[in-house]
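@channel sequence for tomorrow's demo:
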Amino acid sequence: MVASPKHNIALVLPDATARRASTGVLRAGGYEVSTAADYDSAVKLLDGPSKPDLAVVAIQLGVGPSGFVLLREMRSRDPDRPVVVVATDPELEDVRAAFRLGAEDVLLEPIRSSELLCVVDRAYGIAANEAAERSGLNTVGSGAHTKPVSEDLPSVGEEDPE
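structure tokens (generated this afternoon):
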């Protein structure tokens, strides 16, 4: 199952290479992605027609207000929108501050593709087996003989047929 196209992510990363790579990963995972490099662009995204329902925001945004200021702004506009924070040089106090301000999770740079998708899926509440199905990790075999792993495993509490 691929993530629903209605899931629109605001990706706010100052580094163009990381932004492009993360956008590609998220789009390949079935998500719509809108990007911004700084605080001002991110605020415009929030007010724009795409209305992201999840945000991935760097703590360090370069010039201008920090990701913490943006996180506060996002929380004031929509307290139910999940926000994932990206930290370059995470200090324990920064991680604590992110969670106190309502971050759903914290990713460390460099961002790993699998970790990004896992954290976003979890923030949206997409079940792990659906995410694995999307990536093809929950199948055994290939071609016409491919079947879900769950067909090979007994259900919990089911007797082992011997």
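heads up for whoever presents: Confidence is low (pLDDT under 50) at residues 138-162.
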